[in-house]
Write a structure and sequence with these properties.
Layout: H1 14-18, H2 25-40, H3 59-81, H4 93-98, H5 107-126, H6 130-134, E1 136-139, E2 142-145, H7 146-168, H8 178-183
Antiparallel strand pairs: 1-2
Helix pairs in contact: 2-5, 2-7, 3-5, 3-7
Length: about 180
């Protein structure tokens, strides 16, 4: 498998493509869920709704956003690999989050859902022939290839793992003091 050329995706996605240095994308997509589990393994239940600043998503919401992205990118892969030529809709991540239930769902359940969706997408990727990987379609008024979408999926997850490392996990609130909790 070759990396996608810059003509296979919108410039907006360059930062996600840049997150993936590997040429063989399937092993990257397979290993990412284990990496995310390890990364978030130290997050305690009381920390799952932590936000590093006002107006930022919680840890649960970031994983929920990854679920949304995985679904949308996977649907685009499916449609384009099957030859769809109609413009596939975009999605506004902030609008989606306004009605999403993610802050009310345990992190463990969100990670399980994300893993299931990723496994479904991997099963689909494994059925694609060379022609399907190169096939192009239109999503959100931009030309994109199936190959580019696979790299975008991997880069999107890596981007958010970096955000979690840099902005969340180093500043998690400590365990609430049990004496304070019982006194109130």
């Amino acid at each position: 498998m070759n990396r996608p050329s810059e003509t296979e995706y919108a410039p907006y996605y360059q930062s996600y493509i840049d997150q993936v240095s590997e040429a063989d994308i399937l092993p990257v997509l397979r290993s990412q869920m284990d990496e995310l589990d390890v990364l978030l393994g130290r997050v305690e239940p009381h920390q799952e709704t932590y936000r590093y600043a006002e107006g930022k998503w919680s840890i649960r919401e970031i994983v929920g956003h990854l679920i949304d992205g995985e679904r949308v990118f996977g649907y685009r892969v499916f449609c384009i690999a099957r030859g769809e030529q109609q413009n596939l809709p975009g999605f506004d991540q902030d609008d989606y989050m306004l009605t999403a239930p993610y802050d009310r769902i345990d992190l463990e359940d969100l990670l399980s859902e994300l893993r299931l969706i990723r496994l479904g997408n991997l099963a689909m990727f494994r059925t694609l022939d060379e022609e399907s990987w190169s096939r192009r379609g239109v999503a959100n008024n931009n030309s994109v290839s199936v190959r580019a979408l696979a790299f975008i999926m991997a880069g999107h997850l890596r981007h958010h793992m970096n955000v979690l490392r840099e902005r969340y996990l180093n500043s998690l609130p400590a365990q609430p003091d049990s004496t304070e909790a019982s006194a109130s």
